[in-house]
Structure formats: C-alpha cells, structure tokens
Write a structure and sequence with these properties.
301 residues, alpha+beta, 2 domains, five-stranded antiparallel β-sheet, three-stranded antiparallel β-sheet, 5 helices, 24% strand
C-alpha cells in the first residue's frame, strides 16, 4: 500500500510539473486559457497520473523487444548474406575448374532451340513454348501458360505458370521432369530466363532483356534509345569473342553462361548454376554477372 501511494504521489508530481512547464510556455507566448480549464486539469490529474506512469514502462519494454527482434533479423540477414557469398565463391571456383578440365557445350542446335523458344514467346504462341524443349516433359494434365502482366499500379512483369483445370501453380519446376544432360541444363536456363522477354508494364520494363545466342541476334535488339542504335551495335559487335554461351558440367552441377543486353545495365554476361537430381530441377542459382559494357539509357519510368 505504501509503495502504491508513493508511486501515485510521484506520478501526480510529474504531471503537475509538466503542467507548470506548459503553463509557463503559454504565458510567455501570451496565449489565453480560461481559468476553469486549468482547474479541471488539476482536478483530474490524479486520476490519469498513475495510468501515464504505467504506460511509460510498457512503451519502453515494447521498444526494447522490437529492438531485439530487429537485431535478430539483422543477424540472420548477415548470416544468409555470408552463406550466399560462400556459395557464389564455390560456384565460381567450380566453373573455372570445369573450364580447365572439360570442353564447353554449345553448338548450332543449342542456338536454334533458344531462338525458337524466344520467337514463340515474342509471337506470342505461349501454348507451344514446350514444343521446342525436347529435354523437358510436363506432367500429365498440366499446361504451361503465361500470367500476363497487369496494367495497374506502378508496374508488373509477366510470369510463367502451369495450370490444370482450375488449379494454377507458379512453381513450374515442381511439374516438369528433366533429363540429366547439358542440353537439358541449357533448356532449363532458357525457360528460367524467358520471363525477361515476356511483356512488361511500366516499371516492370527495367527487367526487360535481349538475349544474345549468336551474332545474328544483335541486329534484333530493341534499343530504347533508337538514335544510339548504330553506336551500341558497333560496341556489341566488338565484344563478339565474349558473347558465345557456354554449358559445362562439374561433378553434379551444370554451369551456364549467356550474354544479354539491358538498357539499364548494358552488356552483361551471367553465370548460372543448375543442379538436376532424380529428373527434377533441384536448384537454379544466379552465381555472377560480368559487365562487358556498362550502359544506362538515362530514361526512368
């Protein structure tokens, strides 16, 4: 009881002091206040004082808990970041080891399949996308389709999906069986990358890419700054020796490199790691991006 009375008295004093400070400030600013409002404040201060005293520690405890949660999230994020960096470093080492030990796979039939797939996407003939990917088999009853970008908000991207009756699933690799071969890895990479060539809306346009499978694809690049077309094509042609895609296997991993053009990044060569197990795509990991020519069109959506 004594503790409650002490707490009550201290809380009332705090409110009275706060009231006095506010009163002094208002008198300095020459603001007028009716006398009865001040009287009511003093009268009801004892009622609300203990409540305010209770709110303060609750607020402080809540802030402490929130800080601990944020600290834990930051630590988890840092751990994930370090693990991803280790994974990238290992994948890069594996790729370079593979290059030294084995020859890369990329012949005209690889290029033909890539061109056929991206032509179907551009047509568009979405119902025929799998017709040129002979190393991939969709589970019975499922259909590969495209969820077209929505023209609302600040932007959107189109996505591949599979449907079966009223069921829709965007995790397409759960429904596709694949062979364990370099050609299958190449076709997995192509289908994984295809959304960059599908329709985009507004800010989704930043994700648009023009892939380069052979030198014949360079004239087909749609530069957003058409007045710079000849200059940019000349620069890309100068990089021809670095543009040929590669598919190579190291242990149970496939490594695919391919170049693309982005109006907001320039000429990029990316490295992707693909793991196939039990006729399924176990993982697709974006390892690295090498900038062959840095470029930004200067246009913002």
């Amino acid at each position: 009881m004594k503790f409650i009375l002490i707490t009550y008295g201290i809380s009332w004093l705090i409110l009275l002091i706060a009231f006095a400070v506010l009163k002094l400030r208002k008198s300095i600013s020459r603001e007028k206040r009716e006398w009865y409002k001040d009287a009511l404040l003093i009268l009801f201060a004892p009622i609300f004082a203990p409540i305010i005293i209770l709110i303060i520690p609750i607020f402080l405890i809540g802030e402490l808990i929130e800080n601990k949660k944020q600290k834990k999230l930051n630590m988890e994020w840092e751990k994930e970041k370090k693990e991803e960096e280790k994974k990238k470093l290992l994948a890069q080492q594996n790729y370079h080891s593979a290059i030294n030990l084995n020859s890369t796979q990329y012949t005209q039939d690889y290029a033909d399949i890539a061109s056929a797939l991206f032509s179907l996407a551009k047509s568009p003939q979405y119902d025929k996308l799998l017709s040129c990917l002979n190393e991939l088999t969709l589970q019975s009853g499922w259909i590969l389709d495209v969820d077209l970008c929505k023209k609302r908000g600040i932007g959107d991207d189109s996505r591949l999906m599979v449907t079966k009756g009223d069921n829709t699933d965007f995790k397409i690799w759960d429904h596709i069986e694949v062979n364990d071969s370099s050609m299958a890895a190449w076709q997995i990479y192509l289908l994984h990358s295809l959304w960059h060539a599908l329709p985009h809306f507004w800010h989704g346009g930043y994700n648009r890419r023009s892939y380069i499978f052979t030198s014949k694809d360079i004239p087909n690049i749609e530069f957003i700054r058409s007045e710079q077309r000849n200059k940019l094509m000349s620069i890309i042609y100068d990089k021809l020796e670095n543009l040929t895609p590669e598919i190579i296997k190291y242990n149970d991993m496939y490594y695919v490199t391919c170049c693309y053009w982005s109006d907001w990044d320039g000429l990029i060569r990316e490295l992707v790691e693909i793991k196939i197990a039990n006729h399924k795509v176990e993982s697709i990991f974006n390892v690295d991006k090498v900038i062959l020519f840095k470029y930004h069109c200067g246009i913002w959506f």
